[in-house]
Amino acid sequence: MSDNINLGRRRFLGAAAMTLATAQVALAGPAGAQSGNAKPVSAVKPGAHTSFPAIKQINAGLLNVGYAEAGPADGPPVILLHGWPYDIHAFVDVAPILASAGFRVIVPHLRGYGTTRFLSGDTLRNGQQGVLAVDVIDLMDALRIEKAVVAGFDWGARTADIVAAIWPQRVKALVAVSGYLIGSQQANKAPLPPKAELSWWYQYYFTTERGRAGYEKYTRDFARLIWQTASPKWNFDDATFERSAASLDNPDHVAISIHNYRWRLSLAEGETKYDDLEKRLAAFPVIQVPSITLEGDANGAPHPDPAAYAKKFSGRYAHRLITGGIGHNLPQEAPQAFAEAVIDVAGY
């Protein structure tokens, strides 16, 4: 779940009284895969698709990455990044919309999910924020993608934010649910008011060995609880949940998840080779690429107020509030709105 109150979790609290006019997304004519080359996009009902045609595998950096691909091979690339504890099925309805608009859509399993595996058993099962972004750059290199739109939610939104902030030359545009989620270990040392701390109960649970063992034993029960609390108005069925829960059977999933949350609280070491990257992220760099941020009106997960992060985007920027009881897993709950944001920002 999102580390949303880092520059969410810390600085955003001081701006809670601020307000920002947010626009309800209007499903008007899309910009198309390329500016000036609009293609009609048919409306897609959430749950219309249940699977991807095939999962491909490619060696990229430290990983053999499993990923779904849709759309023309020569289309403008879009990389869609999922969160915890979800998987690529969060985009199962988004990908066909973007493919029909002419995009080449890449949907990778993050490290610790699905068919993605480490190439070496000796590699640290590292979940710190920066390394997930390095994974994306490695995947782009392996696929020979020079520049792409990057879009995501939860861990995927943070990862997309980092890629856009640190490697802007590789990013055409950004879509991020809950906005600017780049974090800092130093900022995370400051306590929050009790109500805010309560929202992060699982993070503290994971700091204990009991919590690690509990997550390993009850992974599916845990994930279902997070889905329910993060999206309280999303009435997903068992089949929808199980399609994604299968990805949590990855042998590295528990280790990556636990390391991620312990690292945030400085209770687990990262890798020294990423120290310079994390130092840059701790300065909360401004994102310069064209960006659209999204928020659901029923997001039950911790998330910052849009007013608090608007100035972290210095390029062309818009924020959209997606209404109708939309929770944390916005692309799966509102695929049309998410796809429209990608199409629109690609045309900026």
Can you put this structure into words, describing what you see?
This protein is of the alpha/beta class and 348 residues long. Helices cover 32% and strands 15% of the residues. It has 13 helices and 10 strands. Strands 1, 2, 3, 4, 5, 6, 7, 8, 9 and 10 form a 10-stranded mixed β-sheet that branches. Strand 7, helix 3 and strand 8 form a beta-alpha-beta unit. The two termini are 30 Å apart.
Question: Number of DSSP helices?
Answer: 13
Q: Low-confidence segments, ≥5 residues, pLDDT <50?
A: 2-38
First CA to last CA: what distance?
Answer: 30 Å
Note the beta-strand portion. 5-15%
Structural class: alpha/beta
> What number is the mean pLDDT?
90
Oligomeric form? single chain
Number of E-state strands: 10
Ordered list of secondary-structure elements with their pairings:
Layout: E1 23-24, E2 55-60, E3 63-70, E4 77-81, H1 94-100, E5 104-108, E6 117-118, H2 129-142, E7 148-152, H3 155-166, E8 171-177, H4 194-198, H5 201-205, H6 209-217, H7 219-230, H8 238-245, H9 253-264, H10 275-282, E9 291-296, H11 306-309, E10 317-322, H12 330-333, H13 335-346
Parallel strand pairs: 1-10, 4-5, 4-7, 7-8, 8-9, 9-10
Antiparallel strand pairs: 2-3, 3-5, 3-6
Helix pairs in contact: 1-13, 2-3
